[in-house]
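tool_call: predict_structure(chain=1)
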Amino acid sequence: MAILSRARRVSAAFVRIADTLVVDYDVIDQLQTLVDESVALLDATAAGLLLVDPAGELQVMASTSERSQLVEVLQSEAGVGPCVDCFRTGAVVSVRDIAADGSAWPQFQSAALSQGFRSLHAVPMRLRGQTIGALNLFRQELGSLSAEDAAIAQAFADVATISLLQERALRESAVVNEQLQRALNSRIVIEQAKGVIAHTANASIDGSFALLRSYARAHNQSLDETARLVVERKLTISS
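tool_result:
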C-alpha cells in the first residue's frame, strides 16, 4: 500500500511539473517546481538547479533553501565542484561522504559541510549530446541515493530538459519566421520600387534594381529603406 501511495505521489509530481508547460510558461516557476518536488519525494534535504546561460556560464536558477543556494553559487562562481563536473561531463556525480570524498573540491567541501550537508547527488540535465545544467540533491545523511530515487531524479531532470529545449527551439523558430516574414515584406516593397524607377527613369526592370542597389550602397542605406522612400515618392532615382 505504501508503494502504491508513493507511486501515486510520483505520478502527481510529474503532473505538476507538466502542468507548468503551458503556452508562454514561466521557466523559473517550472524549475522551482522541479526542485520542490525533488525534495518532497526523494531522499534529499535540499535541492538546487544550475543552468548554463548563453555565455556558457552556470547560473543558479532554482533552490529550495538559502543553504543549498549558497553552496551552488560558490561552485558556479569558482567554476569547480561536483555540480559543475556533472554539467561538464554530462554524467551523474554522487558524493557519498563530502567530508571524506570531497577533497577534490576543497571550496565546495568546506561550504557544504558548513551548511550541514554530508552527501550530494548531482544529475545532468541532458538530452542526446546536449547538457544544459544539473539538478543537485543535497543530503544531511551520509550515503548515496537509492537506485529508485536516483532514477526518479533523472526522470525529473529529463522532463525539465526536454521542455526547456523545446521552448528554446520554438522561440528561435519564431525569430526565424519573423525574420523571414520581414524579408518577404521587404521584397514586395523592392519589387514595387523597381516598377516606379522603371517608369520614372525609363529603365528596364533589371536596370531599375541596379539603380536602386547602387543608390542604397552610395548613401549607406538598406535596400528596404531606399525602396520604401521610392515607393512613397520621397525619393526619385534616375539613371
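agent: Residues 164 and 184 are 30 Å apart (CA to CA). Proceeding to next step.
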